[in-house]
């Protein structure tokens, strides 16, 4: 996966990731993270960063609407990202 550069959202992504990481580190007992992924860059990068920082990440794609309203391409993207990261992939 290539990093996204020169995006005006990089600062927001970094800020949001640091907030998430700090919340998870409140308790040293948190080892496993079940992370909902959309198939977009933000959730994919956040999952990679969580794994990099030592969390046991499980990627989850949730079908919240009937099939005609969600993207099968997004589901495939999440599956591929999870495979590349070497993390489990679940669909609900």
Automatic annotation (TrEMBL):
Gene3D superfamilies according to UniProt: HUPs
Pfam families linked: tRNA_Me_trans
UniProt-listed InterPro entries: Rossmann-like_a/b/a_fold (IPR014729)
BP terms from Gene Ontology: tRNA wobble position uridine thiolation
Domain of life: Bacteria
PANTHER family named among the record's database cross-references: MITOCHONDRIAL TRNA-SPECIFIC 2-THIOURIDYLASE 1 (PTHR11933:SF5), TRNA 5-METHYLAMINOMETHYL-2-THIOURIDYLATE -METHYLTRANSFERASE (PTHR11933)
Protein name: tRNA 2-thiouridine(34) synthase MnmA
